[in-house]
UniProtKB/TrEMBL annotation:
Matching InterPro entries: Aldolase_TIM, Alpha-hydoxy_acid_DH_FMN, FMN-dep_DH, FMN_HAD, FMN_hydac_DH_AS
Stretches assigned to coiled coil: none
Keyword entries, A-Z: Flavoprotein, FMN, Oxidoreductase
Protein name per the record: Alpha-hydroxy-acid oxidizing protein
Taxonomic source organism: Rhizobium croatiense
Domain FMN hydroxy acid dehydrogenase: 1-381
SUPFAM superfamilies (alphabetical): FMN-linked oxidoreductases (SSF51395)
Length: 383
């Protein structure tokens, strides 16, 4: 393939380079994947207003997310096992994000640890927290994020228990990779991935090593999650987390206006309207379809971000127009990483930036901070 021009191109390349069990891990959703699909397809129902005879010079995509300057309103979402898409994946993606001037969010369930990522970056990144039953362990993670000078804590609210992805079970997903004949075959057919992986020692969960000794495949990961993650997590716990952390707090995984009101009551700095990329409650509505109701409920009280289904700069622009201050991408950067390592993440970000810039101009706007619902075609949209 010539230079990839779209996120779909990067996806195709990643599928060719990454062993099936890890590509499927990134690319799948829960159960029937209906929410995963709706996340993507609902964006295309929203139509943009074409405007003409407007000065389109000197455009800017620069803005802020939780008061922090970003070169465009797109952060890299926290994703588990990113170091299995490409060796040292989290470190590479964090460096690409830093060079691009957008936030990188490190997952609790990452392969590279908080300290690994801190060692290759010079600007603060964000840390995503899953809350375990063992509060000393949670406190340990918060303190490590503080020591690494992370500039936001992203508290994930929508994974007290793990949704089920059929492909992961069928593939026998594991980290570190297992060596059954099927898996050896899958990996042997991806020699470049293997060569990179042989050069690193980072092949299992960097932040939870020691705490996850018995996790060898997805069945044991599900059992471990069930055992460790706190199923009683409630809004009352947010106060404790806020107190321990003491910095900017983002609550991720809010999809309902009532929950959004409760999240705003906690005094958090932002919420992420998200259904975990369709990986948790299959049958839930798409993130973009819930954004207007949530903006209506709490838009004047808390900053609102969105993720799920963003595959183009147009999608980002639509989310901003409907009231999000920023967005996150999960799979788009994972495809780039799997396809081409750090360069692929930079390419994914570049693709989104170019699409966003051109679309903004053709909608008659020059500054992302001036983008609002006026760029949406009410007549043309099928919502
Ligand atoms: C995720 N997501 C996620 N979220 C989180 O808070 N902690 C995590 O560890 C993970 N892990 C994870 C792994 C993979 C492979 C994916 C695809 C997603 C959800 C993620 O942060 C984000 O909400 C979605 O990825 C957004 O949807 P798109 O952009 O992938 O469509």
């Amino acid at each position: 393939m010539a230079t990839p021009l779209t996120i779909a191109d990067l996806k195709e390349l990643a599928q060719r380079r990454v062993p099936k069990m890890f590509f499927d891990y990134a690319d799948s959703g829960a159960w029937t994947e209906s929410t995963y699909r709706a996340n993507e397809s609902d964006f295309s129902r929203i139509k943009l207003r074409q405007r003409v005879m407007v000065d389109m010079t000197d455009r800017t995509l620069e803005t802020t997310m939780i008061g922090q300057k970003v070169s465009m309103p797109v952060a890299l979402a926290p994703t588990g096992l990113t170091g299995m898409q490409h060796a040292d994946g989290e470190m590479l993606a964090a460096r690409a994000a830093e060079e691009f001037g957008v936030p990188f969010t490190l997952s609790t369930m990452s392969i590279c640890s908080i300290e690994d990522v801190a060692s290759v970056t010079t600007r603060p990144f964000w840390f995503q927290l899953y809350v375990m039953r063992d509060k000393d362990f949670v406190l340990g993670l918060i303190n490590r994020a503080k020591a690494a000078k992370c500039s936001a804590l992203v508290l994930t609210a929508d994974l007290q228990i793990l949704g089920q992805r059929h492909k992961d079970l069928r593939n026998g997903l594991s980290a570190p990779p297992r060596f059954t004949p099927k898996h050896v075959w899958q990996m042997a057919s991806r020699p470049f991935w293997c060569l990179d992986m042989l050069k690193t020692k980072r092949r299992t969960f960097g932040n939870i090593i020691g705490h996850a000794k018995n996790v060898s495949n997805i069945t044991s990961l599900a059992a471990w999650t069930h055992e460790q993650f706190d199923p009683r997590l409630s809004w009352a716990d947010v106060a404790w987390i806020r107190e321990q952390w003491g910095g900017p707090l983002i609550i991720k995984g809010v999809l309902d206006p009532e929950d959004a009101r409760a999240a705003a009551d906690t005094g958090a700095d932002a919420i992420v309207v998200s259904n975990h990329g369709g990986r948790q409650l299959d049958g839930a509505p798409s993130s973009i379809s819930m954004l207007p109701a949530i903006v209506n409920a709490v838009g004047d009280r808390i900053e609102i971000h969105l993720d799920g289904g963003i595959r183009s700069g147009q999608d980002v622009l639509k989310a901003i127009a409907l009231g999000a201050k920023g967005t996150y991408i999960g799979r788009p950067f994972l495809y780039g990483l799997g396809a081409m390592g750090k360069e692929g993440v930079t390419l994914a970000l570049g693709i989104l930036r170019k699409e966003m810039d051109i679309t903004m101009a053709l909608c008659g706007k020059r500054d992302i901070n001036d983008v609002n619902a006026s760029i949406i075609s009410r007549q043309g949209s099928n919502r």
